[in-house]
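Dear colleagues,

For the upcoming journal club I promised to circulate an example of a predicted protein-ligand complex. I picked one with adenosine-5'-triphosphate because it came up in last month's discussion. The inputs are reproduced below in full, followed by the predicted structure.
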Amino acid sequence: MPTILTVTNLTKRFDDFTAVDAISFSVERGEIFAFLGPNGAGKTTTIRILITLLAPTSGEAKIEGYDVVRHPAEVRRLIGYVPQMISVDGMLTAYENLMLMARLYDIPFRERKERIQEILKFLDLEDHARALVRTYSGGMIRKLEIGQTMLHHPRILFLDEPTTGLDPVAKQNVWDHLLELHDKFGTTIFFSTHNMDEAEDVCTRVAIMNTGKIAIIGTTSELKEKTGNSEATLEDSFVFFTGNSLRETTNFREVRSARRAERRLG
Ligand SMILES: Nc1ncnc2c1ncn2[C@@H]1O[C@H](COP(=O)(O)OP(=O)(O)OP(=O)(O)O)[C@@H](O)[C@H]1O
Ligand SMILES: [Mg+2]
């Protein structure tokens, strides 16, 4: 399978702190690639470089052969991005949020309405299209954010913790739609998560990042094998390769992120 993303010795320093430390890896077209790692590992920083929002200190990243530093406009046409923080406006309706993005992405005027209707239908949000987004549940907000990135038909979608803070039903619903997007349009999916079950359920491969480096990369079964324990779970592998326990960090984070979401949407 052809490669869609190539990262070579990518490094990001903030003053004398190295957040991303000479990482190299690649992602094939059509993969569902999970990006794991404890808090502060450098996942969001890496994603922000890949989507052209942050300049690397050194090294290189290319999407479909386009360098993220030298050809940001080309890269932006190929990607979609759902950030860790909420990226829709609670004081607008879903329709208005999508229209705003359609204008931002330069979707031709005549196509906008139809494209938006298609997306609302695809995400089962048609009945709520005219409601203010501040009345939405967390799962509906996430779906709308995914919808925003679908407007320009991206080849690769970057999602930073797409399901953090969602209940299991909403989580499943978000993934059903992401998988449909993947199956229908061949969209490559690159997502970060703290949820091992989620990674295990959907991904083709996993990279575990720790203190700025890629600790290990491979399929979930390769990772488990490398721990030397034939009965290892993905969570065991995570602990093995990072030395971090998972539960303590995620519980705190889920609460924090849910609170942030509440604050943002008033
Ligand atoms: N703009 C910045 N200036 C200084 N330090 C930063 C900046 N952005 C990130 N960092 C630091 O870089 C490190 C990596 O942060 P990053 O947000 O990439 O981690 P992460 O893996 O996404 O963590 P989490 O799971 O908590 O989201 C952290 O120590 C963070 O404090
Ligand atoms: Mg992050």
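Two points we might discuss: DSSP finds ten helices and ten strands in the chain. The domain at 3-36+55-265 is CATH 3.40.50.300 (Rossmann fold).

See you all on Thursday,
B. R.
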